[in-house]
Amino acid sequence: MNFAHTRIHRTLRLLTQGRGSRLVSAGLCVAMLSACTLSPDYHRPEISTPAQFKQAEGWTQANPSDAIARGAWWELYGDKQLDALVEELNRSNQTVAQYEAQYRQAQALVRSSRAALFPSLNLTAGKNRSAQGTGSSSSSLSNNSSGIRNTYNAQLGVSWEIDLWGKLREAMNANEASAEASLADMAAIRLSQQSELVQNYLQLRVIDAQKRLLEATVAAYERSLKMNENQYRAGVAGPDAVAQARTQLKSTQADLIDLAWQRAQYENAIAVLMGKAPADFALAASGDIPALPPVPVSLPSQLLERRPDIASAERKVMAANSNIGVSRAAYFPDLSLSMNGGYSSSSFNNWIELPNRYWSVGPQLALTLFDAGKRSAEVDRTVAVYDQTVAQYRQTVLDGFKEVENYLVQLKVYGDEAVVRQEALEAARESLRLTENQYKAGLIGYLDVVNVQTTALSSERSVLTLLQGRLVASVQLIAALGGGWDARTELAEQ
Question: What does the UniProt entry say about where the protein is found (predicted)?
Answer without folding.
Answer: Cell outer membrane
